[in-house]
Amino acid sequence: MADQPAATENVSPEQFFNELLPAGFEEQKKQGNPVPQDFRIQYHLTGDGGGAWHVTINEGKLEAQADTQDAHITITVSVDDWRDALHSRNGAAPSLILPASRPGRPDNSARVKQVRGTLCQELAREGAEPFRIQLTFNGAESPKTTLKMKIADAIALQEGRLNGQEAFMTGKVRVEGDMAFMMQIAAVTG
Asked: What is the DSSP string of 79-116?
């Protein structure tokens, strides 16, 4: 869902989830990219102007509503970091907050439904606080793993320009916590 229509600088979370995200999903389908058929994503935007949005993908349609429900992935990020990603500011990119879809890459949503645990990412960036995002899989708080890396390397991983194993072996990624859980994540996203 990374190919989104351009968002104005003052786009509200409501506009994004109710209008832009569904439009981006439809465009992804038109381009022939694989999309999940049955999947739920919960977004929690923390801070002033934040809120909770539940995104349901069912029978090829994406719907979002301001609500909190059970989800396969819960994405927790501050409103400020969400805006930075949405507008590609301060080193961030939309691929940090939207599930990646790359041509030739299969839909791994069925595999994601089997993962249990929480992945925290602390992404260093120049001249700003780290970009922090938490992904909770199927409501499980543990095992918990934290990845620390530069934001540019995280984007390259999400977009398929950097191999995760290579990034780990060269020290671009530091892993704290449950390494077995990290290997599950790598298998799903690789």
From this structure: HHHHHHHHTT-TT--GGGTS----TT----HHHHTT--
